[in-house]
Design goal:
GMP Synthetase, Chain A, domain 3, SH3 type barrels, 6-stranded mixed beta sheet, 8 helices
C-alpha cells in the first residue's frame, strides 16, 4: 500500500512512511520539502499509478508526522496569516509603483519562510519591495517568485468551459506550444471566449484531438473544392471532421450535407460564393489580436 501527495502545480510525490505509521487516505500530514515543512493531504495510490512509477519513480518525500488537532488549528491560523500577508505585499508593491500581479502567499508550517507568487509582463526590480517585506515580516525568509500566467492558473485552480477542473491543476505537468492554427484546422471560430482559458492563453486541450482531425481531413476534400453531388454541382462550404461529412453549397444557394461517398471531386473553377456570415467555422467572428493569444513567452516559468 503506497501513499502520495500532490504539491503545488500538480507535482506528485510518493511518501516515505514508517512501517508503524497509521496513515489513512485523506489525512493531512506534515512533509519535509525543499521549501521546508509543509502540510499536504494524503491520497492512496492505485495500482495503475504504482506501475507507472516503477518506470520513472518521482522523488519520495519524508513524512514528519500526521497532523493532530492542535496542528490543524495552527494550520488554519496559517491560512489566515497567508491572506493578510498577500494583501500586505500587494499594498507595498502598489506604493512602489511596481507592475506585479500577486497570485498567492504561502508560509511553511514553522512560519520561517513565506513565498509570494506573482506574474509580471517584464522583469521587476523588487529590491525596495524586499526591504519593505523584511521590515514587516521579521525573522522570516522572504521568497518572491515570478511565475507565468499558465502557472498562476494552475496554482489558483478552477473549472474550465468543459465543466471539468483545469487540466493544468489536475493532470497536465508540461505545457505544450499552442497556436491558432490548431483551432482553425479543427473548425473552431477564432473567438477569445471559445479558444482561450482563464490564463488568457490558448486552451491546452486544442492539442489533444488535433491528430484525429488531421487524419480525418486526409479523407475529406478541403473547403472551397468543387464537387458533384446527387443534387448537382456545388462547392464545399464546411467540413464536419468528426461526422466525416461535408456541407456543400449548391448553385441554387441551398446548403446540404453529404458523406464523402455521395460526392465526387470535379476539375475546374465552380462559380459559387461560399464566403457568407453563416460560415463561422472558417470566418473570424471579431477582430482578434492573434499575437496576444499565441504569446507563450514566459507563460510558464517552472519557477514554482
Amino acid at each position: 500500500m503506497k501513499f502520495a501527495i500532490r504539491t503545488i502545480k500538480n507535482q506528485f510525490h510518493p511518501l516515505k512512511v514508517a512501517d508503524n505509521a497509521n496513515i489513512k487516505h485523506g489525512q493531512y500530514v506534515l512533509v519535509k520539502t525543499e521549501k521546508g515543512e509543509e502540510v499536504f493531504q494524503v491520497f492512496l495510490v492505485n495500482s495503475c499509478i504504482q506501475h507507472q512509477w516503477e518506470k520513472h519513480q518521482p522523488e519520495a518525500l519524508s513524512v514528519v508526522r500526521i497532523m493532530n488537532d492542535e496542528d490543524m488549528k495552527t494550520y488554519e491560523e496559517q491560512k489566515e496569516l497567508e491572506i493578510k500577508a498577500f494583501y500586505k505585499c500587494r499594498d507595498f508593491a502598489m506604493k512602489r509603483n511596481l507592475v506585479m500581479k500577486f497570485s498567492q502567499a504561502r508560509y511553511t508550517f514553522d512560519r520561517k519562510k513565506i513565498t509570494f507568487y506573482y506574474t509580471a509582463p517584464e522583469r521587476v526590480d523588487f529590491r525596495e519591495l524586499l526591504k519593505d517585506l523584511t521590515q514587516e515580516f521579521k525573522r522570516v525568509r522572504i521568497d518572491l517568485r515570478h511565475i507565468g500566467v499558465r502557472d498562476e492558473t494552475s496554482i489558483l485552480q478552477g473549472q474550465g468551459i468543459c465543466g471539468q477542473d483545469y487540466c493544468c491543476c489536475k493532470f497536465l505537468k508540461k505545457f505544450e506550444q499552442v497556436n491558432t492554427k490548431l483551432a482553425k484546422d479543427q473548425g473552431i471560430p477564432i473567438t477569445p471566449g471559445k479558444i482561450t482559458g482563464t490564463c488568457g492563453r490558448l486552451l491546452c486541450c486544442l492539442n489533444y484531438e488535433y491528430k484525429n482531425y488531421l487524419d480525418a481531413a486526409k479523407t475529406l476534400p478541403p473547403v472551397g473544392s468543387g464537387v458533384m453531388t446527387p443534387d448537382g454541382i456545388g462547392k464545399i462550404f464546411m467540413v464536419n471532421f468528426l461526422k466525416k461529412t461535408v456541407n456543400v453549397k449548391l448553385e441554387d444557394g441551398k446548403i446540404k450535407e453529404y458523406t464523402k461517398n455521395e460526392i465526387e471531386m470535379i476539375d475546374g473553377e465552380v462559380n459559387i460564393d461560399i464566403e457568407t456570415e453563416g460560415n463561422l467555422n472558417y470566418q473570424e467572428e471579431e477582430i482578434v489580436d492573434i499575437k496576444s493569444l499565441e504569446d507563450d513567452k514566459n507563460s510558464s516559468t517552472g519557477n514554482i
